[in-house]
Design a protein that fits this description.
By secondary structure, the chain is an alpha+beta fold. It has helices at 24-32, 45-58, 62-81, 86-105, 109-116, 119-139, 141-144, 153-161, 170-180, and strands at residues 11-12, 33-37, 184-188, 197-201, 209-214, 217-223. Strands 1-2-6-5-3-4 form a 6-stranded mixed beta sheet. Strand 5 and strand 6 form a beta hairpin. The mean pLDDT is 94.
Length: 227
């Protein structure tokens, strides 16, 4: 991965392989995916990876880009239902809309890559996604409180979700995928099994993006074309 970058250029999948003989999981990974973008491991990797991968997946589809922009604007309702003051999220919301509008104006991967590698812009996007995850968790507390260990959901959200650089949990991924209406395919390298584990969130939907989970870290995967 290039030093200094938050999200790398696309690299061959073998760039993830260990120096010594790659095990069956790597061979499995290589048979299904051709390339990867590495995301900086700063505790914000899931949010950054999700946003980049989703925007990249709709970059050349003007209607899907517009729908995503409308979805972002509608999140104001989610924030007000959860009792967020506009001053806490409006600036970050504007940052996200700015990125989407830049992509609408110039449907090029390198424009998106430049925006997401600008630390201030990128962190604004991450902060927005964290606040949105928190708002969605709190608005659906009856459901989500069953999955959270903390004394209560609000404490969990403030300490674990809204704070930058905190690694995300399965419950956060589910909440954000629901809030944005995005289906995610997570390929996990963890565990002792010989095979990769596959998680589709929400279950049964058609994923628009693919993330690799390995040692508490997320990178973006690109499937090999289906022949």
């Amino acid at each position: 991965m290039e030093t200094g970058s938050l999200v790398s250029n696309r690299e061959d999948i073998s760039s993830l392989f260990p120096e010594n003989t790659p095990g069956p999981k790597y061979k499995d990974l290589s048979s299904q995916f051709s390339s990867v973008r590495q995301v900086r491991g700063d505790g914000n990797c899931f949010y950054r990876a999700l946003f980049f991968a989703h925007l990249e997946s709709v970059l050349h589809n003007a209607r899907a880009l517009q729908r995503f922009k409308e979805k972002i604007i509608q999140t104001c309702e989610e924030f007000s239902s959860a009792g967020f003051d506009e001053s806490s999220f409006k600036h970050h919301l504007d940052t996200v809309i700015h990125v989407v509008e830049q992509c609408q104006a110039d449907e090029q991967e390198d424009r998106l890559l430049r925006l997401i590698n600008d630390q201030v812009t990128s962190d604004g996007v991450v902060q927005f996604l964290r606040l949105l995850t928190s708002a969605h968790l709190q608005n659906n507390a009856d459901f989500f409180c069953n999955f959270v260990e903390a004394p209560n959901l609000q404490v969990y959200c403030q300490q674990e979700v809204e704070a930058m650089a905190m690694e995300c949990d399965h419950v956060d991924i589910l909440a954000l995928s629901q809030a944005l209406g995005i289906c995610i395919h997570i390929v996990s390298m963890d565990g002792d099994e010989q095979q990769l584990a596959h998680h589709i969130i929400p279950e049964g939907a058609e994923p628009s993006l693919h993330l690799l989970y390995q040692m508490s870290h997320y990178n973006i995967l690109y499937p090999r074309p289906q022949h």
